Amino acid sequence: MDQLKELNDRIIRRVNVNLEEFDFDTESFVNNSLEYDKMLKFYAFYGITSKHSIYFHFRNSNIAGSYFLGQCYVGRSAIYKSDIRGDELKRKGDNIRYIKNVPLVEDERITIRDSLLYKTLVHSNSHNLESPEEFSIQNTISAHYVNIHGSDLQGCFLGPFATVDLMNLHSCIVGEFSYVQAGELFHRKIDPGTVWIRNVNFEFKYKFKNDILDNYVGVNSSHQPRGLIYDFVKEREQDYEKLFDVMNLDPIKAPANSAVSRYAVVNGKAQIGENVLVAQRAFLENAAMGDGSNAQENSYIIDSNLAGNCITAHGGKIIHSNIGLGTFVGFNSFLNGKSHAQIEVGEGCIVMPHTIIDPDALIKIPDEHLVWGFIKSEEDIKTNTIALDDLAEVRDSLSVGKMVFSGKGSVFIETFKKRINQILLANGALFHNGEKRGHAQDDQNISYNIIQPYSTGELKGLYPSIRIKP
Amino acid sequence: MDQLKELNDRIIRRVNVNLEEFDFDTESFVNNSLEYDKMLKFYAFYGITSKHSIYFHFRNSNIAGSYFLGQCYVGRSAIYKSDIRGDELKRKGDNIRYIKNVPLVEDERITIRDSLLYKTLVHSNSHNLESPEEFSIQNTISAHYVNIHGSDLQGCFLGPFATVDLMNLHSCIVGEFSYVQAGELFHRKIDPGTVWIRNVNFEFKYKFKNDILDNYVGVNSSHQPRGLIYDFVKEREQDYEKLFDVMNLDPIKAPANSAVSRYAVVNGKAQIGENVLVAQRAFLENAAMGDGSNAQENSYIIDSNLAGNCITAHGGKIIHSNIGLGTFVGFNSFLNGKSHAQIEVGEGCIVMPHTIIDPDALIKIPDEHLVWGFIKSEEDIKTNTIALDDLAEVRDSLSVGKMVFSGKGSVFIETFKKRINQILLANGALFHNGEKRGHAQDDQNISYNIIQPYSTGELKGLYPSIRIKP
Fold first, then answer.
1. How many CB atoms lie within 10 A of CB A382?
2. B289 SS3 class
3. End-to-end CA, chain B
4. Which stretches of chain B score pLDDT less than 70?
């Protein structure tokens, strides 16, 4: 146990050095959120499939509750309740597209060194041109339900429900419920509730009002989460326990070309269509998943219907909602419908990451709209959505409500739609006649291997060194 | 799956070459006993403790249901439902005692290469003077409930319920229910039901009558087991399933200095004394385990009372019996008492390995007796036991019933008592005031790690390569 605490202390000190200029001390966050007892009781696991290239190599890390699916190397890390994927790592010869193609000279690996990640999802599909063969995370502390999606990090603190997407961060603080996809950032502090996409072609920016955000996701003085969204996930936490208590579960009924993770919660009725992916730690309750739809890690789909080819990104929450064909619901969005106040989202919509829709009466989003920010009532639709066709006309800049856009709208839409198509492809939504396999087809037959730390002695709470190769 | 079958085929061919002179073909045995479907469903596991030195390194092996506790290396092996211990491996500087001491130049390891072991217990504590640092098993096929106890093997076939103890075998066939501890054997065929101990100082030999043996352990034409003892274990097989279905079990009530494996079956009432070890795959049902007693792997203690410092060696079965203080019950012994026909074994007795006591009325073995062979009624006691004091008088040779002894009786007893003391020591029976720790104290806090094979693809049924170091 001492060595585990020592490891944590060292990471705290290292991250604190990086964040010194912000006068930010991560110690109280870590000490208040880490439950050492649970770190002994939880087991970690990794998946073995014939489809994912593996090179697991954990060192004295505590990786309680983790989930590894592709090549990996983890250093002296304490990764707690984390999901480390690696199923979209690029192979030798693949290209990272920037202005021109950058081909990989060897298979990409995830490397995590001396990091403390806490309740963190790390998803591969990185885009760092400087090290295309290595998806690296160095020494970073991240709070509850953070999404690290293809982002390289070094010495950062990520607040609860933050998402960093396809970028490189160095010595940054990202506030709670902020979504950032902004290339490369050094020594920056991102305010809570910021939704920010920036690249050479366009910029999209929205910031939640403090009083609204505070109602949904806030933090106390030691950066522990609170608020409606946190309460929502907290209330459902114990539903996951049964998944970890037993070795084998009866599989959920699904077509042969769809995958429902045995580590997903499925309550009530579930309709699983063709080419559907329900990832581990997804939560379904009376959910109809139309053909080609997916529910990614930490997403919740409750009393809702996804028409087909719908994407629920990591941490997306869809409650009492009807989602139209081909609609994308971004990271950590909170579509909080009620039985008396359903949410209807039309076809081909893009619900931006970290969008909150929380109506008191039926609310309808028309087809082919971009949706962002905070929508409480019908009239918020005017200030928080725009028809994609109207956005496509924008050539320079646009303000709608609190959202500011600059650049060419058509390029923004084209980029987004391209990414949506890539996500559908990667998840196996487009599988047909044996072609275009994706996670829905390849993640069905994962053998889960379970590892537990030393329960006594000097290394209590840590794992032995382990190397796994195909 | 193809690669798994290919691996098995290769081992069959190799072992067959070794056993060619006996006109012995292992193929029908393997094909009739291996259930490929189960090899996919079963998981393997290994233990991590702060007390056992590990160097696990499995290669494309199927090690379904296995159990590793100390240093190991497993090659391209298919080890099915096996227990590989390694908790009594010697360390650098330890001595193997023969005529003079042979010190080890490095820590001992278990090596298993290209072997197919089936339902096999491999226990360390080897005594091979030629390779003191390596406990090696090469390419061997062993049938149900075989005990390989500190024995090096190469190209052998071991029949059901056979035990090979502290020896080296090369290209041998060991018949069902035979116990052999005979130094080094080349190209030998050991008849079924042989109990044979031979060394430079003495020899002990007993052979079960064929018609009696046939009732308890027999084999059919493809060497599959049948008989009363096989039926006995078969009937209880499903009791183990619950242990493998759940991740965590409520621990059995036991003193802090005793260990009851979470992979042991405990039915009915169980009284666990101080310094008791109940190993994995042991089976207790209404059992009272007196202080310092143990129930080793595959042992069964049912409606019985072990007074204290009693040893139940691997595969020992004690039913409706009262076992006196300090009594040793050897490998695979079958003490088949009934509620109307109890078995009482006195204090300080040595029940030889592979002894069968199967009374129809109360039977009493006096204190300090050596017990062997087959005892059905009170009068068999004359021909199948001897007072240790009487045996100690023997200076040349002795025949009692079908048992033939040669050598000095006192040396035989001294050697046996020394070993019993070593077993008690190793198992933690003599733990006192923090001194003389053993398995009862060190095996309490094992973290079990679970590995599963590829469930699809070319490697279906095999594992990825895995290396685990402290």
1. 11
2. strand
3. 32
4. 1, 60-66, 97-99, 127-129, 470
How far is A29 from A33, CA to CA, in rounded Å? 6
Q: What is the pLDDT of residues B162-189, one digit of tens each?
A: 999 989 999 999 999 999 999 999 999 9
Q: For B51, what's the count of Cα atoms within 13 Å in the CB-facing half-sphere?
A: 17
Token reading at A391: 């956005």
Test the A interface: residue of B66, B454, B462 with most A CBs within 10 Å = B454
User: B31-51: per-residue pLDDT in tens?
Assistant: 888 777 777 777 777 777 777
CATH number at residue B377: 2.160.10.10
How many angstroms separate the CA atoms of A123 and A110, rounded? Answer: 10
Burial class (CB in 10 A: 0-12, 13-18, 19+), A421: middle
pTM score > 0.90 for this model? no
ipTM of the complex: 0.75
Q: In what order do the strands lie in the sheet with A385-387?
A: A259-260, A277-278, A294-295, A311-312, A328-329, A350-351, A369-371, A385-387
Domain count, chain B: 2
Give a yes or no: residue B375 inside a domain. yes
Structure tokens at B180: 């052999």
State how far the Cα of A292 lies from the Cα of B242, in Å rounded to an integer.
37
- Alpha helices per DSSP H over B19-85: 27-33, 36-41
Residues of chain B found within 8 Å of residue A470, distances taken between Cβ atoms = 459, 464-465
Q: Structure tokens of B116?
A: 């197919």
CA distance B271 to chain A (A): 25
Identify whether residues B145 and B16 lie together within a single domain. Answer: yes
Which structural domain range is residue A210 located in? 2-235+447-468
Nearest CB among B247, B248, B459 relative to A50 is that of B459
Report the residue of A51, A263, A456, A460 to disrupt the B interface, i.e. the one with the largest count of B CBs within 10 Å: A456
A62 and A79 together in one domain: yes
Residue B401 lies inside a defined structural domain of this protein: no
Report yes or no: B196 and B183 within 8 Å, Cβ to Cβ. no
Gap between the Cα atoms of A454 and A463, Å rounded:
6
Longest dimension (CA), chain B: 66
**From the CB of residue A268, how many other CB atoms can be counted at a distance below 10 Å?**
10
Compute CA distances B99 → B69, B95, B102, whole Å: 30, 11, 9
